[in-house]
Amino acid sequence: MLTLFPCLCLSLLIPGVVTKLHEDIWHTDAWIAQLEGSKKFLMYHPGQRKHLEFVKPNGEAEFVDPLRPDLIKFPSFKEASPIEGYLEKGECAAVLTWDAPTTRTPPIKGSLWDSLVGPSN
Asked: Which residue from 119, 116, 105, 106 is spatially nearest to 28, judged by alpha carbons?
């Protein structure tokens, strides 16, 4: 059974803003509705985590910048295969697990997202 998670967010960003590679809050999947402008996504399957994450000696994780990867710190990143996606005004998509969105146009864009929790989460 799929239920809505109690989290709804509206983000307003200017063109060119890049969000770091991340897992959405509470490690859930999300629905993204593009209200204005457009957005490019680079998404990775969770099974590729070993290519995307560097664990520091204190146990803190650091994730690769997929647009400017440090191949010394993340030598296996070149083995990761992103899924690239685009959203335009009025479109909606399910964004699963890891993503690194980039705002493309216009001067201000808006996204509305809602996290989902399913039986596997």
From this structure: 116
